[in-house]
Amino acid sequence: MTRSLPLLALLLLGACTVGPNYAGPPATASDANRFVRATDAALAPTPGLARWWEGLNDPLLTRLVDDALTHSPTIDVATARLREAEARLGQQRAGQLPSASANGTAIFAELPPIEPGSGGTSASFYNLGLNASWEADLFGGGRRTVEQAQATAGARRADLADAQVSLSAAVAQAYVALRDVQARMALSDTNTRLQQRQLDLTRQRFAAGTASKLAIERLQTQLENTQAEAIPLAAQRDEYLNQLAVLTGRTPGTLDPTLAAPAPVPLPPQSVAVGDPAALIARRPDIRAAERQLAAGTAAIGVSKARELPGIRFLGLLGLGGTSPEKIFDLGNLAALAVPSLNWSFLDFGRAKAATRVSEAQRDQADATYRRTVLDALQDAETALSRFGNRRRQLGQLVQVEATAARAAALNRQRVAAGTATLIDQLDIERQQVSAASAVAQARAGLTQSYIAVNKALGLGWTDPVSSDATP
């Protein structure tokens, strides 16, 4: 009974875990039960779709996003970091178990003679041994280390999801910007042709004495300005083509044949699902990563506190040996040794306690970072929702302007046909119609970009890789 008391005491100590238990993230924005800027009729309170880009109904865009999520080095980096964190978690779990090693020794010795003239002697020794060691987790420092590694792995998993969210949004943004600039290039070409016709007709009128040289110079200036404004559009087109190639893991120029032909800017669906702030906080990857970092920081306090306290390590040796190979397995030569050792840096002049205070300060930083991340996410979402609603209203207004310009052009054609208006006047009205169409095209692109921003702010666009180790 007396010998079992130390073992019983050891088991009781092993059930002790120092440091605070993680109680979950702080309640941040708990009073926010709806998005205050989600007032547009197109914004629905239902949860959003993970593959939100499919709502744009553009098969080429869907293919580009899928290619990026599969082949982008950015995703590969985040995936490798997750694998590293999960491997470290496996290391920490294995570190709580005993370790053992085996060794074998064969010694041959030729000894010199003890007295002059006598013959030397030889000796042989053979040994097989087993060494084992285990450190008792007296105060739960090992368990806290596993908790910390598990939370860190969860944070890396959320980082991977965040990379997927950012990448899918970046591909969609670049694709929409490309289609927008292609549309503006086509409209610029139309505007240039109209201005060239105006200039040619004015030159004819000047030759007939019915137009001034000033009118020619004015139109020539307009034409040259329009041509100059079109030059940067080609550079923007190439920039977006290069960006899309790199985002999908390709070299610049690879996607040029696929994307060279202009296509309409895809428009958002009639109803955009946005959910509520609680769903955003639970789903958005950067918030989840910050929460896991807070859990890791809480566990780190326990790791530091355990280092302030004593530790017990057990060493065990088991050996068989003899002077010849056949005697190695003679149990009469069995040797066994068990050695417990106590380690306690009780006089470290406050270094261990200072390390604990460092861990506590880092946990407080993680707590504040989590609260700031939640508030920043809510701000992103509210801003994106407000911008989406206003862009929809702007597009509706500009569509009316375009329709008015089209009616004006049609009415003036009747006047030209009746001989009460000149062709130059008609070309000027058609230029106004092209300008209105250009504004509508840019507003359409702006609306789709705001739709992309909404889904990015809501934290949509990621899938969870299968792994049990990173489960919080």
Describe the structure.
- The structure is a single chain.
- The chain starts with a helix and ends in a 15-residue tail after the last helix.
- Helix 3 runs antiparallel to helix 4 (141-207), helix 4 (141-207) runs antiparallel to helix 5 and helix 4 (141-207) packs antiparallel against helix 8.
- It is an alpha+beta fold.
- It is elongated.
- It is 60% helix and 11% strand.
- It has helices at 4-14, 59-71, 73-94, 141-207, 213-247, 256-259, 277-283, 285-307, 351-418, 423-457, and strands spanning 43-44, 99-111, 121-136, 272-273, 311-322, 335-343.
- Strands 2-3-5-6 form a four-stranded antiparallel β-sheet, with no helix packed on it. Strands 1-4 form a two-stranded parallel ribbon.
Helix content: 55-70%
Sheet with most strands:
4 strands, antiparallel
Question: From the alpha-carbon coordinates, what is the Rg to the nearest angstrom?
Answer: 38 Å
Content-based structural category: alpha+beta
SSE succession: HEHHEEHHHEHHEEHH
Uncertain runs with pLDDT below 50, 5 residues or more? 468-472
Quote the distance from N terminus to C terminus: 42 Å
The best one-word shape is elongated
Question: Average pLDDT value?
Answer: 85
With helices defined by DSSP (H or I, 4 residues minimum), what is the helix count? 10
The amount of beta strand, in percent, is: 5-15%
Order of strands across the biggest sheet? 2-3-5-6
Oligomer: single chain
List its traits:
alpha+beta; disordered C terminus; 472 residues
Task: Explain the layout of strands and helices.
Blueprint lengths: L3 H11 L28 E2 L14 H13 L1 H22 L4 E13 L9 E16 L4 H67 L5 H35 L8 H4 L12 E2 L3 H7 L1 H23 L3 E12 L12 E9 L7 H68 L4 H35 L15
Parallel strand pairs: 1-4
Antiparallel strand pairs: 2-3, 3-5, 5-6
Helix pairs in contact: 2-4, 3-4, 4-5, 4-8, 4-10, 8-9, 9-10
